[in-house]
Structure formats: structure tokens, C-alpha cells
Amino acid sequence: MADDPNGGSSGSNGPTVIVVKKKARGGHGGHHGGAWKVAYADFVTAMMAFFLLLWLLASTTEEQKAGIAYYFNPPSNASQYGGGTGIMRGSSAIAADESAPEEAPMMPPAQANMNDDMAVQAKEDAVFRQVAEQIKRAVMNVPELKTLMDNMIIDLTPEGLRITLTDSADRPLFDNGNAEMFDYTYSMLGVVTHVLQPLPNNLALGGHTDAVPYRGANLAYTNWELSADRAQATRRAMMQEGLPERRMARIAGYASQQLLLVDQPEAVKNRRITIIILRSKQGTVARFSDQGLLAPQGATEIPF
After folding, report:
1. Residue 176 lies in a domain
2. Would you give the DSSP letter of residue 84?
């Protein structure tokens, strides 16, 4: 029996034993593992959530967004709830005991009212602009009133649409020192009244004078009384032309306290009357058609 060079023994009758040695290869197992699949799945999930958020933001209205923001950050609960500062610079909507409030309105009443008021104001402004254009066209259709166009100013104010009729050196609205209006002044008021009749809005009338003190026999009669009397004369003229008395919300005399030309207090243009179509929270519901301005069915005066 001879010794086997591989450490065994061999004989003529025994089988030959072959030993195979394998060396382990390392350094590449990490690249072919399954960890990347988990990371990729997290990435896909995050992207899906991101695009879902973008879709929700694009499909919601401003009011809904305001309601969502209010739900997570109600300003009225700043002293009741703990937590850190929220995204919108308010306190967290989660209470200190980590429980959400039971009820939260979708939109704060103040925000909802402001949105409603803005929508109503935009709608009224559009109607007011149409009213202004219709007044100008109506005046231009009366030949004897065309020259008074320079005496008319129409503008939008926070109170509503303001129609101002001013004096001029050669065309005053009233006789000097009293409240007797001229025929063309009455005609102008008649044209304005007929345009305003279909509107449901109330009116505010004002009389104004310049800063020149009133000089008359009655020392107790001043620019205050004169401006008030002219405002009342305007009211009577418009009522004679068919405007209901219930539409008169305010009649006032301002003397020279609201000058049109502040840097020229004695200018004749400061002597004027103003007619304001007052705004309302319910909005102007009259509409325009080919036949002109149409009153809404069953319309009544607007409460203020």
C-alpha cells in the first residue's frame, strides 16, 4: 500500500477520491440584493402621493382651499390648542392631548361673508357701469341737454354709483341764493330718474355749496340750509318724475364740507347735487336687454 499524495492512501483495489476545493467570491452580493426594490417602491409611492396632491389642488376652488386651511389652522383656536407654529403662522389645529377638535367649519364666517360681498360688489359694479352708459346716452338723446354733459360726473364710490350735477358759470342748476331749479335742471333730473326707476337700489341725495358765505336778509339762513333745501328740491323733482318715496334712503345738505375742488373752495363747480345709487349686500338684480334696463319681477326696495 502506497501513500496517496493528497493525504490519503491508495491501493490497487480501492477507488480514487477526488477533492474539489471552491473559493468563495465576495464583494458583489450587495448589488444583486432586494433592498433597491424597497427604495424604488417608496419613491413610486411618494411620487403618486405628490401628483395626487397636485391634482387635488388643481380641482378645488379658492373657497374650498380656504376651508381646508382653516380646518388645519383655525385662528380662533390659537389659545386653546397646543403644538408648534403652523404653516400659516397660526397654532396647530391638533389639541395638546393629541386629539383633533370635534367640529371645525369648512370656512370661517368672516371669510365666507367677505367672498360673498366681493362677488356681489363685482356684479353691482358691472350693472352700475351699464347704468352710467345708459344715463349718458339718454342725456345725449335730448338736444337741449347736450350742453349739460360737461356739468355731469359719474363715478363709482364705496357707497355706490355717484351721479354729480355741478354748476357752471353760464349754466347754474338753481337760481342764485335759493332752491328754485331751472327747467333744464328739472329735465336732467327727469332723464336720470327714468333710467334709475327699474333699479331696486335705494338712493342718497346730497346738496353742496361753495365756501362763499350765504348773504341774505335772514341771518339764520346759511349754506347749510341752502344745501339742504336744494337736496329736498331734487327729491321732490325725482318723485314727480315717478320715483317712489320709499327709495329715498338719505337726504342731506353738506354746505361746503365736501368740496369737489378742494384747492378752489370758492369755485362754482363746488355748487352741486349728488345722487348715489347705494350698494346692497343682496346685489342689484336688475338686468339689461335689447329693450334697455329691466326691473326684476316682484322687486322691492333693498334693505340696508
Report:
1. yes
2. S
